[in-house]
Amino acid sequence: MQQVPVTHTLALTNIRRARMLPVRGQVHVRQHQKVGAADVIASGNPGNEHLLLDVRRVLNIRTAEQLEDALQCKAGDRVKKDDILAESGGMFRRVVRSPVNGQVIAIIAGQIFIEAQSQSIEVFAGVAGTVIDVIPERGAILETDGALVQGVWGNGKANQGMLLSPAQSPEEAVGRQTLDMSMRGAVVLAGWCEDPETFKIGAELPLRGLILGSMTADLIPAAQSVDYPVIVLDGFGAFPMNNQAYKTLVSNEKRDVCLNASPWDAFTGDRPEVVIPLPADGEPAAEVSEIKTGKIVRVVNMPFLGKIGVVVETPVAPVTLPNGLRALAAIVRLENSELVSIPLANLDVLE
Amino acid sequence: MTTSIVEAESILAIDLGSVHTRALLFDVVEGQYRFIGSGSAASTTNAPFRDIGEGFHQAVLDLQEKLGRTLVENGVLILPSREDNAGIDKLVVTYTAGPELRIVTAGLLADVSLQSVQRLATTVCGQIAESISLGDHRRPEAQIDAILRAEPNLIILGGGTEQGASRSVFKLAELLMMVCRVLPQERRPHILYAGNQALARRIQDVLSKWTIVHVAPNLRPGIDSEDLSPAQETLASLVTGFRNSQIGGMQSLTSQCSAAPLPVSHAMGRMVKFLSQSYDPTKGVLGIDIGSKGVIVAVGKAGKLSLKVSPYGMGSSANRLAETSLIDEVNRWMAVFTPPETIRDYLWQKTLYPGSIPYTAEALAIEQAMARVILRLGMSQTWSSYPDLGESFEPILASGSILSQAPTAGQALLMLLDGLQPVGVSTVILDKYNLLPALGIAAEVNSLLPVQTLESSAFLNLGTVICPISPARYGAPILRIRLEYEKGNETRMEIQQGSLTSLPLKNGQSARLHLEPLRRTLIDPAGQRGINSFKITGGLCGAVIDARGRPIPLPGDAARRRDILKKWKQTLGN
User: Sorting pLDDT into bands at 50, 70 and 90, what band is A120?
Assistant: First the structure.
């Protein structure tokens, strides 16, 4: 049987995560330092704002010698706003000043190319843990032990806070009626969400994070617009959170949880996740597994979307599905004891 | 020519897809090359594997098990084959797998050289993240920042005919140099220059200090002439280079290959171009492949290839259909009532799990509706890039899991008719095993193999479709037909405007079809006028007359629309 990637839903494990800048910058942590999820690990200038100043044209320069005389800066120089970059000689002196703080990248054919200092990009820890390695100018490797629940969609934000579960079961939705002042500064756990107002109210409280089993896809823009992390664990629609994740999370209610809602990148393996640091030693979890008897699996397509079950039989030959397609399918015992035949392609191993 | 003249050799073609890895074996049977069988496994390009090796190995093992022929020993592919017939003689690879390729296009005039650059860029699976040209009204620094934000892997620069503009092209090159100067070395995009060749050396000298520069022949040697082919080859080898460095195990697989791996689109295009040399030059040979990341449209006309990859796919890019207007379009093709919210959720869920398959009738209906919209988008984008292609094709070769795994051949044919909406007379062929790209790459190492495999029964004939164009109103008779069977008996029918009719012709059965157009009906606008009697052979769906009009007018009323969609489905045997 071919190995497949797993989605981690673990009560205790050892977690190592790299947090790197996409550009060179400054690392703000040192080895063995303890960090929180919202701590900045590294920051740098994204270098996405530039200016071209045409000295030749502005100063009416005609020869290379004139240009050489006029230039008051060279490539690599850091400049401040209003610094003189070039000036003409003569009785009526004219100058070219830097309109921004930044760095001269190059001077090409009489044009000064400046990289403006722009708002720096920051890489957050995303988990509370210990810095075990520092990568100079780039970031660090963090380690922690605790519970780990991986999701399928995130809004790109990170934070940490106390976990609260107003929902009494994974079937309960979160909406404008569910959120109140008692949840201010907390990370809220709920079965699903289909009310766009929820995110706005969450921002007004404010919440430190929102963990959902599912969310209707029309809410994506609203979820992306808020500053706190939103993580969807099971998928898009309005269906309950898978019980394994719900149990793992709710058993840690009132603990500090770290949310790293980075979007799922299948190629690199980055995915949204909830980490709950615990004072115990965990073992690193396997990243791959097999779909075989006894494995806990989650269904990723309708009609059993988001339900979990245990594999009781693996296929030997393709079967005909209710819609007439033929596919290799496993027999899965769902939590309500129902036995269903599900295509292997629609199963995600949880462990 | 039989293979006794040349040395018979078995060829294993590997297709590294973003969802599946397929292994296809070709060998000589009774003196002719034949497609022997296929194996498949889930691709392992993505995390946590990040190495194609496991998917490749499993696909070959699957093939070995199905054929009962030893291909692997101690976990290693037997290459070349042994005397006991174990193993294979040659290995070739095509691919769509890998992270999204981000391309910036640059040219002088937006509707001339930039358009040619865009056409070149869209021959591979990727995204055009930014475009610049002389007509760009942004300041140079804004253009630089836009390119930086696009985070390209590749910049394609064109412009200037031979002995034409050089100063303006060089200005663009200087702009690109500034982009490279501000980026750290590991993030600098490669640059492919395909403009005025008089400038090639100078541009290479300037830019190669900062990044890797590739030079291809000018895309537009003259203002009225365009030749993408030589640059396509350079682009293909460049993309293969990217994949070798991005995808674990690719380089090692490449080192065993008898030909450099090719993007699936280029390998498929090669076969379509080849086929077009032996078909009616007034019509095009159409190859279409619906994949997880995008749809490939290749049209060959008298040996000239028009190739386009549109970024609308059935899997990882399914969320691109989640815009309101496209969801409405998907919904228009649903024969069962499904709220638009359900469709939107389904599209996003499919993006998360591109390898998942529909289990219920509703899920299958959504995916088949998606396929229709994707085919339509693929064709409309192709027509927009190549306006002279026409809408009449012979034959139409289609592939993609949504088609090849359809529960019935009729469903596959209806998806193609609804999505492509061809006009005239076409033979619709299903490339169930996705052989076309494999043959395209295999042609490089064995020219006989594709020819003989095409002549075999490896491709499934879905049927001949006749799609007349008529100005008549809905329900008016537009065609009288007489189907004369080989045994001498015959069937007569009258075709009404707006109808879809399945002709009583079995798979493999031949008959002569006589058509009498009524009310200024055109049978085949691109075909020869006056030839309204020809021989047809039934395919899996027999033969079909699609007189629904172009574009197919779907009723605005949802209930009526669903009824008519159900009726059409029943016509082609559910």
Answer: confident
Contact A343, B359 (CB under 8 A): yes
> pLDDT, tens digit, for every residue of B483-526?
999 888 999 999 999 999 999 999 999 999 999 999 889 998 77
Residue range A291-350 in CATH 3.40.980.10: no
CATH fold group of domain B102-233 = Rossmann fold (3.40.50)
B359 touches chain A (CB under 8 A): yes
Selected for mutation to probe chain B from A20, A267, A270, A304 (highest B CB count within 10 Å) is A267
Residues 6+ apart with CB under 8 A from B188: B180, B210, B211
Q: Which residues from B are below 8 Å from A52, CB to CB?
A: 139-141, 144, 178
CATH fold for domain B11-95: Nucleotidyltransferase; domain 5 (3.30.420)
* Mean pLDDT to the nearest integer, B471-488: 94
3-class secondary structure, B461 = strand
Interface residue B141 vs chain A (CB under 8 A): yes
Percent of chain B with pLDDT over 90: 88
- Answer whether A326 sits within 8 Å of B344, measured CB to CB: no
Q: Report the gap between the CA of B169 and the closest CA in chain A (Å).
A: 16
| Residue of chain B with shortest Cα separation from A327 | B357
- The domain limits of chain A are 3-44+122-277, 50-116, 291-350
> Are A3-44+122-277 and A50-116 the same fold in CATH?
no
Q: For domain A3-44+122-277, give the CATH number.
A: 3.50.30.10
- Architecture of domain A50-116 in this structure: Beta Barrel (2.40)
pLDDT in tens, B386-431: 999 999 999 999 999 999 999 999 999 999 999 999 999 999 999 9
Give the nearest partner residue to A300 out of B48, B187, B356, using CB atoms. B356
**B460-467 and B477-485 strand pairing:** unpaired
How many contacts does A have with B, using Cβ atoms within 8 A? 153
Q: How far apart are CA A112 and CA B402, in angstroms?
A: 55
CB < 8 Å to A220, chain B: 348
C-alpha span between B423 and B410 (Å, rounded): 19
Predicted confidence (pLDDT) per residue in A204-254, tens digit: 999 999 999 999 999 999 999 999 999 999 999 999 999 999 999 999 999
Question: What secondary structure does DSSP assign to B348-364, as a single string?
Answer: HHHHH-TT----SHHHH
pLDDT tens per residue across span B117-139: 999 999 999 999 999 999 899 99
**Sorting pLDDT into bands at 50, 70 and 90, what band is B5?**
very low
Residues of A in contact with B177 (CB under 8 A): 108
- Chain-chain contact of A288 with B407 (C-beta, under 8 angstroms): no
* Substitution target from B144, B345, B432 for chain A, most A beta carbons within 10 A: B345
Of A315-319, B11-15, B232-236, B491-495, where does mean pLDDT reach its minimum? A315-319
**A216 to chain B: closest CA residue:** B345
Residue A340's closest CA among A296, A309, A301? A309
Break chain B into its structural domains and give their ranges: 11-95, 102-233, 266-571
Helical packing angle, B113-121 and B229-246, nearest 10°: 50
d(CA B100, CA B98): 6
For residue B152, which amino acid is it?
A: P
A109 vs B contacts (CB less than 8 Å): 174
pLDDT at B303: 93
Of B49, B344, B352, the CB nearest to A152: B352
pLDDT at position A49 over 60: yes
What crossing angle do the helices spanning B340-352 and B324-332 adopt, rounded to 10°? 110
The answer to whether B57 contacts chain A (CB < 8 Å) is no
Q: Considering only CB atoms, which chain A residues are within 8 Å of B330?
A: none
Residue labelled with tokens 């596959």: B412
- Search chain B and give the residue with CA nearest A234: B349
CA-nearest of A75, A74, A81 to A117 is A81
